[in-house]
Design brief:
Elements: H1 2-16, H2 32-36, H3 49-53, E1 54-67, E2 73-85, E3 99-104, H4 105-118, H5 146-164, H6 173-180, H7 185-191, H8 201-210, H9 216-266, H10 271-286, H11 288-345, H12 353-361, H13 366-446
Antiparallel strand pairs: 1-2, 2-3
Helix pairs in contact: 1-6, 8-11, 9-10, 9-11, 10-13, 11-13
Amino acid sequence: MRRAAALAQLTNMAACGSSEDVAVIGNTDITSAESENNLINTMVERGTALLRKMEISVAEAEKRTGKNTVNMQETYTVYLIEVRPVESVPEGGTPAAPDTLWRRYSEFELLRTYLLVTYPYFIIPPLPEKRAEFVWHKLSADNLDPDFVERRRVGLENFLLRVASHPVLSNDKIFLLFLTEEKGWREAVLETGFQDKVDSRLKSLNATFRVKNPDQRFIALKNYSDELNTVISQLLRVRARVADRLYGVYKVHGNYGRVFSEWSVIEKEMGDGLQSAGHHMDTYAASIDDILEEEEHYADQLKEYLFYTEAVRSVCRKHELIQYELETASQDLTYKKQQKEELATGTVRIFSLKGMTSKLFGQESPEQRESRIAALEESILEGEEALKEKNAESREFIRTAWDDIERFKEQKDKDLREALISYAIMQISMCKKGIQVWSNAKECFNKM
């Protein structure tokens, strides 16, 4: 009953949201709270009616063991989704308990696949990586590693908030069911029949190579997406290499600490100064683990847009497919009109089996010709209607997709700018701490 009430409340709130609601993305200023917990989600703020009324979070992750579909034992991770109404609590009152349920990563994948098929003209937010990529060698790439699971938990929460901040996706009934119905959700999404609408990879590839008049805007967008993917991939690889070197530099300072400590034992007058300098070096060496964990937070923000590039390409591929179907319908209609003209005038413009048959066995009777012309006229009318529908579908796809692309571009520019600025601030802070460590060591040496 409580889940049904929550779903009804979510549906009503989504229905009240205006299509003019726009997600506001950003705000990555460094605060003391964030420095204590570097995995706080700062990429999405409240924008739609849904997020203004409800708090959505992935509160925790839990490792479980069970049997899979082939009855084999497996270990997997589930994530706790909490949905809580945003309401003012009277002084001394108790906040309403959140509505909670557990989801596996595969269920998040199913939700995103459904959104991709149902809304092919939207850039669907990506999921966090299933297995770690572009990592520095001291970081575990195991998908069950607690640190990686925690980062993926933050990424899954970010995915839900991205969808909830979209002016259209936030109203989707299946998405609302995902947040509130643990048991019957999978059956509900399969009942939509979205799997029957999935375009085959071969069909999309065929459209890519056979479209004669592609839209130059989508070609430029696809090329930009490919270039952005390349640039972010290179940036992440460079960051991983720098992290490896930085890790080595910091840890070598631990050798300074050991040497100063050992030296202090044999020096009576300089002993205290050497011991203090060694302590500063040990502290400096130990700080690299927290620093690189914080760096991973910013790397994950870049990875999100690395995965976003595939979502952009998906929209471009869908447009190519629509354009190919439009051109095919136009060619088919032209061919039928040519057939009708040939029958009506008795002339054959191109070589055909039908023309050879007529020459070998004689012309058709007037009755047969009239019957074929009538059938062609009916087929032409159907073709004209089909072409009209395809033209309307293409125009609507371009209009809707381009509106969403402009929204995405604004979001992307703001997110990446703030993520890179925050990363630079973090690097500056790290260097200042390094200077402070050596300044402290210098003071220790001066006092000896």
